[in-house]
Amino acid sequence: MLHEILTNPTILKPQIDYLVFLQNLRTPELDLLFLNITKLAESIMPYIFVSLCYWLLDKRTGFVLFAAMQLGMMTKDFLKEIAFVKRPWLLSDRVHPVDAARAHAPGYSFPSGHTVRGITSIAGISIATWNKSKWISLFFILLGFSVLFSRNYLGVHTPQDVIVGTLFSVIYLFAVSKFFNWIDKKEKGYLIFAGAVLIIAAFIITVIATGILKEELMSYYSELTLLTGICIGYFLDKKYIKYEVPKIKWYNKIFIALLGIACLYMLVHLTYFVMSGTAFEIYKRVVLYFFISIFSTIIYPLFIKIVSKKI
To answer: Which of 172, 77, 78 is nearest to 124 (CA)?
Structure first.
């Protein structure tokens, strides 16, 4: 039913016309610009944005962005499997995507995963900066929304893909923010968080067991693993770490940011190096996501807390 609605010629034609319009505006310079913008929502980049928010802007917003992004990505994976809408160039031979972007756009099209990451991990940072600087917040909002526009410009997603991705990303940001407002006031709010993660895990595992979900199963497990790591981080922070963003000079913050980014990249390469070619290679993304959550919410905040006192 959903597939028939989304691929209805009446609904699809104006969207294809829009993609062709953008296609006719392409230049090598614009191609390069939007290829780089779209990379902001790929690989480890979204987790770098969220981690930097956690370490240097606002811890609570960091938790919100981590949780909202993982929920958004699980929803995206679920919708892709039940809608099975093909990529724009497979829906119409009028659409010709930028080759470099096409190589990183496998699978079904609806909704856009880049949009989910762009809105939650980049535009979501405006939650932490709004009361400090409206201009900085506006910058992050525009940067996040430029990711979803890049997906249309590059010809790898239709407008409905990015619109729906944006809608439930915004809904998750709002809902998760309210959720953390609630549990932050509870003495044992971490138990409520853990219960919510268990409910989500039970639902996903049940749906997988029924055979409804058949593709990208490691993606679901990875998202659940990161949510679990964030839950552990929330518990340990509440009970022991009690991390607060340090009040240090801007150049010390830059050093902390660069060191943290370097550590995250090392974590990615080390995990893939150790697990690639082994019997456990299929689980390397699951392991990596757990390591990222633990490093970003426990290990590095503890390091920052110790070092900032000396500074």
So the answer is: 172
